[in-house]
Amino acid sequence: MKINRMTLFLPQISLSQVSAGVISLLLALALGSAFDSRAHAQGTHVSALVNAKIAMHVQEVTPVETCGANLPSSLNCQDFDSPLNVSWPADGTMAHVYLLIIDVDPETGTSGASFGIEYGNMIMGAWQGCADKVFPENAWPASGSGATFSFDECQNTVDEGAEDAFAVLGYFLVWANEDDVFFVTQRNYQPKPDFEIFECSGNEIAPNYPRNAGNIGFGSSGGYAPCIEDVPVESTTWGTIKRLSAN
Hints:
This protein is mainly beta. It has 2 domains: 41 residues, no CATH class; 186 residues, Immunoglobulin-like (Sandwich). Helix content is 12%, strand content 32%. Strands 2, 4, 6, 7, 9, 10, 11 and 12 form an 8-stranded mixed beta sheet that branches. Strands 1-3-8-5 form a 4-stranded antiparallel beta sheet, with no helix packed on it. The longest helix is centred in the first third of the chain and has 22 residues. It is globular and about 45 Å long. The relative contact order is 0.22. The N terminus and C terminus are likely disordered.
């Protein structure tokens, strides 16, 4: 939101006719009004995406893959149960690991997300983005890297039998020869790391991290499907602060 700077208009009189106290008061009122406008712009907003999560799902490699065409019809959490597969053997078997935004309120929808990834000895074979735009950082998809994903159209389609929508951000071709964990993390954005999901209206929502971030476990390492008790979140003010500081 662009905050219009306030212009102070004084009567056409010479400064000698106005006391220093009056001038100081007028300036204080003008500045106070401007700061109050900024504070109002940074006010919190409780989003319908309070339940949304950034999750992973692993399954066998299919010969032809077109951004989730071979995925189950719904990968949303149902009463804390999850259809997400978050475990895979560490025997060198290749797999597709999907990045997903799940539990998306269809009335709000999502237009993308920002986050990072991290893994140890897992082998990264390839990456395919499914969002319309992907802005990678720090040698994505290397461990410790991050990216921002953006869809041109609002992602809010509910599959048959489901209550919420989910969006496929992309998928990796991976395998592991020893125990490891493939994490969704915060993006190492400077000056402040972020973990955000975007409403179709443009609001940036900061879900609870790490509770709302999934991972895949290889071998005896356990994976994590973020089908947990909902924790209310608020729209982050950091994006607002960045925009305000630019004006």
